[in-house]
Specification:
Blueprint (H helix, E strand, L loop, with lengths): L12 E7 L2 E7 L1 H6 L13 H12 L19 H7 L6 H5 L1 H12 L19 H20 L3 H18 L1
């Protein structure tokens, strides 16, 4: 296999990047790898992986997810990076504009992006569509399996009860 940089020598350095189940490979000859600043330090028995990644980031730039700091609310103009600094959203439309990032953030902070706690006795029942109910049931079942796997039996019991309530409403 030829070097992807010079297309003359055989490739001896193979790099592979996997992000979100997508794989990109880069094949270089030793001379082109050295030009890119990759010194594997085989003589000294050590190498600096951060230097390698830093020097190769240009090759994988298009493959990596876009920077979140460039996200902006369409209504108020708040940048996602500003939200990360202040912890406050600018308007109600920010919730929709930053929904994937907020969902990921809530899941990381609370362990789940869904509220499975108790509801007030006099709270009105939410009317969910059949598709929404089916999706919610699937999510609860997956969370229940995860809770049992983690041996979080109290959490599993709460999830089981939530499943029963939702299945009873669907009835």
């Amino acid at each position: 296999m030829l070097c992807e940089e010079c297309r003359k020598q055989n490739a001896a350095v193979f790099l592979k990047l996997a992000v979100n189940n997508k794989v990109k490979e880069l094949h270089l000859c030793p001379a082109c790898a050295a030009k890119k600043g990759m010194s594997f330090g085989l003589e000294s028995g050590a190498f600096n992986i951060s230097d390698i990644v830093g020097n190769m980031s240009g090759y994988f730039k298009d493959f990596l997810p876009p920077e979140r700091k460039t996200l902006r609310c369409g209504a108020c103009g708040l940048k996602y990076s500003e939200f990360k600094e202040s912890g406050r959203l600018g308007c109600p439309d920010c919730y929709a504009g930053f929904e994937p990032q907020l969902t990921e953030l809530m899941a990381r902070i609370h362990g789940s992006a869904l509220h499975t706690g108790r509801a007030y006795a006099d709270a009105p029942e939410l009317k969910l569509s059949k598709a929404e109910t089916a999706r919610r049931l699937a999510e609860l079942r997956a969370e229940l399996r995860d809770a049992v796997t983690r041996e979080d039996f109290e959490g599993a019991a709460r999830l089981r009860d939530a499943l029963k309530r939702l299945e009873g409403r669907r009835g």
